[in-house]
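User: hey, got a sec? need Orotate phosphoribosyltransferase folded
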Amino acid sequence: MAPALTSLRQDLLHLLCQDAYQEGDFTLASGQKSNYYINCKPVTLSPRGAYLVGRLFLAHLPEQTRAVAGLTLGADPLVVAVTVLSGAMMDQDHPQHRSYPGLIIRKEAKGHGTRAYIEGPTLPPQTPIAILEDVVTTGHSALQAVERLRAADYRVESVLAIVDRQCGGQETFQKAGLDFQSLFTIQDLQKYFNK
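Assistant: Yep! Here you go:
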């Protein structure tokens, strides 16, 4: 990883441990019990946090990616950060010569109008899309987004997360034929938090 990206990664780790990570007794969206909880929204919805996530995700997107998407609500700020930052970098004649449109996947079809599951620009069939996630536990939330996009004739081959809780998500994605990478593991956060 380039020195500048290493520094940005360290800054994001600090923000996550300061504003997103908590220890205690929690029940997760998956139904699992946990002695810690990670709520990335205070970070991903802050100016610095959104910038850091956008920059690091842009650096880790697979080469074939042409758009990014994610399941509402956790992925909304991630998709926007990557989309906006990729457009801004193109304006600045940055070596990142690609902008990435973003799609938001609803959990339920819209109850009016087009009743769409997918919000955003219409992209050509088989457009390669990377799924963005804040925290991966079992991987089932991201799989919902993958299934909706594949049903709409898009190509989804990868998932990129901020934090992997290492609770089966990697295996879930492998079974679905998806590449998976995360910026951090839960051990990264716990080690930094408890130092």
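Quick note: Residues 52 and 70 are 18 Å apart (CA to CA). Let me know if you need anything else on Orotate phosphoribosyltransferase.
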